[in-house]
């Protein structure tokens, strides 16, 4: 009797789910949203592989943190962006073009946020490297000393920006013409929309450090600056 009840209940439950799913699909079609990517079409934007092994930044950042951060968070931004641009006038544009076309437009906030977060994470992974930190190359050090007085002052300003960013966001080393400066941005905002050239990014969203450092953002930021930051990449970006 018990088994019969379960068997009897299951189809009704499935039918309800089916009706709900059908109604949702009908709503999407009515709104003109693409139900799925056209058959055979490659997604517009892709998730770049990490520039090092998943465990290469351990113990500063664990393989667990990189697995979630790259494989779930970064990937979700890529997937959301592809879903949002497919079938729109933004399809076929490069990531940078999508960001430029949507920045500051309230109606395009979802596209901008996902596109900018894809770009920011692409940049963040390159801002780190195994056995990073330490001394910048001489040419970058000269620029740092001219702008901040010393490497220590530059790192202190980067840490202060990362710690004082209220809620989710980013701390950046950026170039404003010949001058280097430290800025912080909220959520997905990025230096290029402010007319600055980004050199290094530090992700201060909680997903970047919570598995390894819980609420200790300062420990995460200082460990990144001392042990992972990729000064060679910053010099390359300075050009
Ligand atoms: Mn992140």
- Encode the helix/strand succession as letters: HHHHHHEEEHHH
Summing up helix and strand content along with how strands pair, one would put the structural category as: mainly alpha
Strand order of the largest sheet: 2-1-3
CATH topology: minor pseudopilin epsh fold
The second-level CATH architecture is 3-Layer(bab) Sandwich
Average pLDDT for all residues: 87
Helix content: 40-55%
In DSSP terms (H or I, runs of 4 or more residues), the helix count works out at 9
The CATH C-level class name: Alpha Beta
Radius of gyration: 22 Å
Q: What global shape is seen?
A: globular
The CATH superfamily appears as: Iron/manganese superoxide dismutase, C-terminal domain
Tell me the strand percentage band.
5-15%
Q: How many extended strands?
A: 3
Unreliably modeled segments: 1-40
- Domains, number: 1
Mind sketching the topology for me?
Blueprint: H1 2-30, H2 63-85, H3 95-102, H4 109-127, H5 138-148, H6 151-164, E1 169-176, E2 179-186, E3 197-203, H7 210-213, H8 217-228, H9 231-238
Antiparallel strand pairs: 1-2, 1-3
Helix pairs in contact: 2-4, 3-4, 6-8
Bound molecules: manganese (III) ion (MN3).
């Amino acid at each position: 009797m018990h088994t019969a009840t379960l068997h009897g209940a299951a189809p009704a439950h499935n039918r309800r789910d089916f009706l709900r799913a059908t109604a949702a699909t009908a709503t999407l079609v009515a709104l003109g949203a693409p139900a799925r990517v056209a058959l055979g079409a490659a997604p517009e934007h892709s998730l770049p592989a990490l520039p090092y092994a998943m465990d290469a930044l351990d113990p500063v950042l664990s393989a667990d943190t990189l697995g979630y951060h790259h494989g779930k968070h970064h990937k979700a931004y890529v997937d959301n962006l592809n879903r949002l641009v497919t079938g729109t006038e933004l399809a076929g544009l490069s990531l940078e073009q999508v960001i430029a076309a949507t920045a500051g437009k309230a109606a395009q906030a979802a596209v901008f946020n996902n596109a900018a977060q894809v770009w920011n994470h692409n940049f963040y992974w390159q801002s780190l490297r195994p056995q990073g930190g330490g001394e910048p190359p001489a040419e970058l050090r000269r620029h740092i000393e001219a702008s901040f007085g010393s490497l220590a002052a530059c790192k202190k300003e980067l840490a202060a920006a990362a710690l004082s960013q209220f809620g989710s966001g980013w701390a950046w080393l950026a170039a404003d013409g010949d001058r280097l400066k430290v800025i912080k941005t909220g959520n997905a905002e990025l230096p290029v929309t402010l007319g600055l050239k980004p050199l290094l990014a530090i992700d201060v969203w909680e997903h970047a450090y919570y598995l390894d450092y819980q609420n200790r953002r300062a420990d995460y930021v200082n460990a990144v600056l001392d042990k992972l930051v990729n000064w060679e990449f910053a010099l390359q970006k300075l050009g």
